[in-house]
Amino acid sequence: MQNRSIARRDPFSITDGTAALWENNGAIATHTFVDNSAPVSRVFQNLETRLAKSDDEIQAAQRLRFNVFYKEMSATADALTLLNGRDEDKYDRICDHLVV
Within a 10 A sphere around the Cβ of 58, how many other Cβ atoms? Predict the structure, then answer.
């Protein structure tokens, strides 16, 4: 991992194929990147699950999260979330997004 002085300026650090999200001087989430040339996909009957391949697919997943959390479950959104119509959080930069 990168030293903590670097991690404090940027909460995300990437070293040796592993991304870390730092908060309060400790890694709270890590992700090891896989070879993106091999698609991660599964098909069952007429449904396919796979990792999002583009920013557009990630944004579509965020819009779905918005609809479920804020419209269906009546969560309280901040102004930026309402304006964008997408549920975004600090983990989106380092997490894979599974789409069906």
Answer: 19
